[in-house]
Write a structure and sequence with these properties.
There is one protein chain. By secondary structure, the chain is α/β, with parallel strands linked by helices. It has a domain at about 1-25 and about 100-205: Ribosomal protein L4/L1 (Ribosomal Protein L4, Chain: A, 3-Layer(aba) Sandwich). It is about 30% helix and about 15% strand. It contains 7 helices and 6 strands, in the order ββαααβαβαβαβα. The chain has helices at about 20-25, 30-45, 105-120, 135-145, 160-170, 185-190, 200-205, and strands spanning about 1-5, 10-20, 125, 155, 175-180, 190-195. Strands 2-1-3-6-4-5 form a 6-stranded mixed sheet. α2 packs across α3 (about 105-120) and α4 (about 135-145) packs across α5 (about 160-170). The longest helix is centred in the middle third of the chain and has 17 residues, at about 105-120. The two termini are about 25 Å apart.
Length: about 210
């Protein structure tokens, strides 16, 4: 698949790039996408929730009534889960929601997500640019020139660029990441995926089928 390279003013250049078919042209694997997205969302959870069990509730351990002869059910102390204010049975405790996922599956998921974006025509290739200082207004102008200012978008850089990142930090509809940090969730969550020219070979190297 060939895509035209755009300038930051929204005009087309006379250059075209050929997307790597092994990255942007595979048959998407939905299950790999599901697993990688599930892992991403699981890692966002703090897992710090905690409830008090019977031994952790503040209250007397005195037996409330005699064991037999009352006509009612047996009762221990006031901390019993059957009483209001008692401990909770099998309540949530701090835990890690993460799980192991093979690197090959993660790369397959990212390739699948990129292939979906390519099929849907939601990828824009932009010429490399830089800011001398953080300029949010100028960054917004670039998005508007590319006709993605009112859409969820993600700009993928080949390497860290602090000025570009700071220029986009206050914008809710856009996200700036470097190629090595791109997640399947981020790719699918963006309606428009903006790739710099220098990012394409980096993605091809990072997501290569033959990568160890």
């Amino acid at each position: 698949m060939e895509l035209i390279v755009y300038k930051i003013n929204g005009e087309k250049t006379d250059r075209k790039v050929v997307l790597d078919e092994t990255i942007f042209g595979i048959e998407p694997n939905d299950h790999a996408i599901y697993l990688d997205t599930k892992l991403f969302l699981a890692n966002q959870r703090q897992g710090t929730h905690s409830s008090r069990e019977r031994s952790e509730v503040s209250g007397s351990t005195r037996k409330l009534k005699r064991q037999k002869g009352t006509g009612g059910a047996r009762a221990g102390d006031i901390n019993s889960p059957v009483f209001v204010g008692g401990g909770r049975v099998f309540g949530p405790k701090p835990r890690d929601y993460g799980f192991k996922l093979n690197k090959k599956v993660k790369r397959l998921a990212r390739r699948s997500a990129l292939s979906y974006k390519a099929q849907e025509g939601q990828i824009i290739v932009l010429e490399d640019f830089n800011f001398e200082k953080p300029q949010t207004k100028k960054f917004v102008e670039i998005l508007n020139k590319l006709a993605v200012g009112d859409k969820k978008s993600m700009l993928v850089l080949s390497e860290s660029n602090n000025n570009v990142y700071l220029s986009s930090r206050n914008l809710k509809q856009t996200n700036v990441v470097i190629a090595s940090n791109v997640s399947t969730y981020d790719i699918l969550n963006a309606k428009s995926l903006i790739l710099l020219e220098s990012t394409l070979p980096v993605l091809s190297e990072l997501l290569s089928v033959n990568r160890d």
